[in-house]
Design brief:
By secondary structure, the chain is mainly beta. The protein is 14% helix and 37% strand. The protein has a domain at 50-145.
């Protein structure tokens, strides 16, 4: 029995004598694989789709709307000055009977820039998303129809 007591005391002294290293705070200046691949810290912002207007003096792009949660505005940029203005607010993309704006993956301007064809509810067919719903937005009348 005495040997077991000695072994138990020796084991306790050994375990208590070991010090576990203190957890070091993560240094935000160190670039680690965990920060690169397991966080959103280095994720780039989505850009697109963009459409050139006219002779290339302007382009439009979808941007996150400040006025409607989950909505995207069509924003027009001047290529020379960088000035921007909201061309179509996300509120205009809310169909009748709905409270949410359309989530479209692409859009195309008519030749006279008076209408937009919006591609929504896309489904993949073979290698590309070619199946879905098409909506038309008339900029002059501000009407949206299927």
């Amino acid at each position: 029995m005495r040997i077991q007591n000695y072994l138990l005391v020796a084991l306790l002294i050994t375990v208590l004598g070991l010090r576990l290293p203190a957890q070091q705070p993560v240094d935000s200046t160190l670039l680690t694989l965990d920060r690169i691949f397991n966080s959103d810290e280095f994720q780039q912002e989505y850009f697109g789709p963009y459409k050139w207007l006219g002779t290339g003096d302007y382009y439009t792009i979808l941007e996150k709307s400040d006025s409607i949660k989950g909505g995207r505005d069509i924003v027009k940029y001047n290529t020379l000055s960088g000035d921007k203005n909201i061309l179509v607010n996300a509120k205009k993309f809310i169909p009748e009977g709905s409270d949410k704006p359309l989530r479209f993956s692409n859009y195309t301007w008519s030749e006279d820039l008076s209408k937009m064809l919006l591609f929504t509810n896309t489904k993949r067919v073979w290698r590309a998303n070619t199946r879905g719903d098409y909506w038309v937005y008339n900029l002059k009348t501000e009407k949206l129809f299927l």
